[in-house]
Design brief:
- The protein is α+β, with helices and mostly antiparallel strands.
- It contains 6 helices and 6 strands, in the order ααααβββαβαββ.
- Strands 1-4-6-5 form a 4-stranded mixed β-sheet, sandwiched between helices. A two-stranded antiparallel ribbon has the order 2-3.
- Helix 2 runs antiparallel to helix 3.
């Protein structure tokens, strides 16, 4: 609804690429070919095809692609990712206190962190370039994020253990260790919940 209001204000249009059969088919193939790092490229290529086809028949200046509310930052070291997630949670606590004082509801964020090899790539043309990361490492991080409740950080057990041993959870603590059943994986993944 907010996107539609914005689109109307700038003489634009909202196109739900997720409802497109090509994108849905590519997502299904990517989900069933979880270990293939190139499977997600099919999704990106499908979305790019929709944008290019729309641009061919409409005089548009900007294209804004909104997937869902996920953001995928990446770090060279998983320890830094965890410290950034903890800082995010601490910052959100302060921000939410201010929001509540002003009569607004809290905004809650769940974070999933995974470490491993990935592919960093750039997709696009002369008029639009998008840089992203793909691969099973990224997919597992997204699945772990799906297991995170509001205000939680969910990480692999090895990162949680290293963080506890190093003493740098920065005021956070491991609240639960569990076997996470993740879509696309045959075996469960040992994970941990971290909260402030």
């Amino acid at each position: 609804t907010q996107l539609n209001t914005l689109a109307t204000a700038v003489n634009g249009v909202v196109v739900n690429v997720g409802a497109d059969a090509r994108v849905a088919a590519a997502n299904t193939q990517a989900d069933t070919s979880f270990e293939c790092p190139f499977a997600k490229n099919l999704v990106a290529a499908s979305i790019k095809g929709i944008v290019d086809a729309y641009r061919d028949v409409n005089p548009i200046q900007y294209v804004v692609v909104v997937g869902n509310d996920n953001v995928i930052p990446f770090f060279r070291h998983p320890d830094n990712a965890l410290l950034a997630a903890i800082a995010l949670r601490q910052g959100m606590a302060v921000y939410n206190r201010e929001r509540e004082e002003d009569g607004y509801p809290k905004i809650e964020v769940g974070v999933g962190i995974n470490s491993g090899e990935l592919i960093l790539g750039t997709l696009g043309s002369a008029s639009r370039i998008d840089t992203t990361v793909i691969g099973s490492t990224v997919n597992i991080a997204a699945r772990l994020q799906g297991k995170a409740q509001a205000g939680e950080i969910v990480v692999g057990e090895d990162l949680a253990a290293r963080s506890e041993a190093g003493g740098w959870l920065d005021g956070a603590r491991v609240t639960e260790r569990f076997d996470a059943a993740l879509k696309g994986l045959d075996q469960t993944l040992r994970a941990a919940r971290i909260a402030l």
